[in-house]
Design goal:
By secondary structure, the protein is α/β, with parallel strands linked by helices. The chain folds into two domains: 271 residues, no CATH class; 178 residues, no CATH class. It has 13 helices and 19 strands. An eight-stranded mixed sheet has the order 12-13-16-17-11-18-10-19, with helices on one face. Strands 2-3-1-4-5-6 form a six-stranded mixed sheet, with helices on both faces. Strands 7-9-8 form a three-stranded antiparallel sheet. Helix 7 runs antiparallel to helix 8. It is globular. The N and C termini lie far apart (56 Å).
Length: 487
């Protein structure tokens, strides 16, 4: 069995002030894909591992991935999809294809770019070809994609720590189909909700009830896969919101009925989905008076893994104003990192930091401090963390000791998925009292083990959880939360 493996992944935030170009994608071709992903916890690592597990030959084709950010520019999307299609065409005949797509890619002209990609791949390979697609839990799934894919498999955890297993699940299902053991047919249901990211944790709260039901359903005879996508509220697109996708064995009515049953279960949790979360002043005060430490403050409005700027100063400003101590804040600020590098280790510097990317993320603050460390920004994460990524690069990085805390200034937007982001720059997490992590749920995999307490903070920004419904133009109107909160 010759199985093609490919991925094209981007989470596109339509509310940020910048777009995403081709140069921001890390593109891998052929054997590079196997080399890069083999040892990771990413779904492509699962596609690779499936070769030994299920006895197929891997044909590595194409992979492209970029840090979440703004809408993908038209020419970038065209170039990426054209290369994907050209590579598949050149590799034919194949027995099947494992295709990792994020599910929340927005390209200029294609609000559901992953749906468009799947449509084009299906057009190339023909109607009966086994085309198995995986998605991030934050996908906004259009019904058309579920028709075009032979099966869609979605991560079951947030933070995403089961990506490799989902890659393996897709691989297993594909090989069963090829060996004549299954006939996948999918149903999709979309509850009319905004499933706010504040409730995306799959280990507790309302989502756990829904996910547990999906896991239970997947064990039932006749069901090949049962997935729940929470959706991605930072893409203003027609099918924004949660999705239930059930794949049954040859029984379309069963797939649709079970998808609807889980959608009804999700709908029944709606009263628990209205966020009540402290703002920065209150959250910082809570952290400072907490008897247990360290406390991690999750800055929801500047969720870098959700495409935000990474240089918000809203919580930092409060830490300075309330004279907190032993805190760590990481800011994306290449200019400030360069100023510190020029000053050198041990030097005192006064410089403007943060709030530079746009005007949504708090003011630029002027701080004075001592340059404590400089680093090239590369680090490795070997543990199972959100996103499954192993090799990281946050660019030139400086640590400035200022105002009772430590400011890590990096040069590439880096979501807080690994504590090695701090350790590599000489910051020992065990010795801190307050962390600020710019994320919603994803940083939990890294920060929960070292935090006595996590406090989510409702801040302004490109990933604000309190965006008013009038800010949406293309999403379906009347979704629950919007219809039940006066704003
Ligand atoms: Zn995600």
């Amino acid at each position: 069995m010759r199985i093609g493996i490919a991925s094209l992944s981007h989470e596109s935030n339509t509310f940020v002030s910048f777009t995403t170009g081709l140069s921001e994608f890390q593109i891998l071709r052929g054997p590079e894909i196997v080399e890069h992903y083999r040892a990771t916890f990413h779904e492509v690592g699962g596609f690779v591992a499936g070769a030994d597990e299920y006895g197929y030959e891997i044909v590595p084709l194409f992979s492209a991935d970029a840090t979440p950010s703004g809408t993908v520019r038209a020419e970038a999307y065209t170039a990426l999809v054209d290369e994907l299609l050209d590579t598949i065409r050149a590799a034919l005949p194949l027995d099947g294809l494992l295709l990792g797509l994020h599910g929340a890619m927005v390209a200029e002209g294609f609000p559901h770019a992953d749906g468009e990609t799947t449509r084009r791949v299906r057009g190339l390979v023909g109607p009966d070809f086994p085309l198995f697609v995986t998605h991030d839990y934050h996908g906004n799934v259009p019904p058309q994609l579920v028709e075009d894919a032979s099966a869609l498999i979605i991560y079951k955890t947030c933070p995403h720590i089961d990506q490799r297993e989902r890659g393996l699940q897709a691989a297993e299902l594909l090989t069963r189909v090829l060996r004549g053991g299954a006939q996948p047919i999918a149903g999709i249901a979309k509850p009319e909700l905004v499933y706010n990211i504040a409730f995306h944790n799959t280990s507790g709260g309302p989502m756990k009830r829904v996910m547990d039901a999906a896991i239970e359903l997947e064990r039932q005879p006749g069901i090949l896969a049962a997935s729940v996508a929470a959706g991605y509220q930072y893409a203003d697109v027609p099918w924004m919101g949660p999705s239930i996708v059930v794949v049954a064995d040859g029984e379309p009515a069963l797939a649709q009925r079970e998808a609807q049953r889980l959608a009804d279960l999700m709908w029944s949790t709606r009263a628990d989905l209205l966020p009540r979360i402290p703002r920065a002043a209150e959250a910082v005060a809570l952290a400072m008076t907490s008897e247990e430490s360290p406390v991690s403050l999750f800055e929801l409005g500047d969720n870098i893994g959700g495409g935000s700027a990474g240089d918000a100063t809203i919580i930092l400003e409060e830490l300075l104003r309330q004279e907190a101590s032993d805190w760590v804040v990481a800011l994306y600020d290449p200019e400030a990192a360069a100023v510190c590098a020029a000053a050198g280790i041990g030097a005192e510097a006064t410089l403007p930091v943060g709030g530079k990317v746009d005007d949504q993320h708090g003011p630029t603050l002027t701080v004075t401090g001592r340059v404590r460390a400089l680093h090239d920004g590369r680090f490795i994460e070997t543990e199972r963390r959100h996103g499954g990524k192993r090799e990281w690069d946050q660019g030139l990085t400086a640590v400035l000791a200022t105002g009772g805390g430590l400011l890590l200034l990096d040069s590439l937007r880096t979501p807080p998925m690994s504590l090695n982001q701090l350790r590599s720059a000489g910051i020992l997490p065990e010795q801190q009292r307050i962390f600020v992590a710019k994320g919603a749920v994803a940083p939990r995999a890294a920060y929960e083990p070292v935090s006595a307490r996590i406090i989510e903070v409702d801040t302004a920004g490109a990933t604000s959880i309190s965006r008013p419904p009038r800010a949406y133009r293309r999403a379906r109107q009347g979704l629950y939360e919007w219809s039940h909160q006066a704003r």
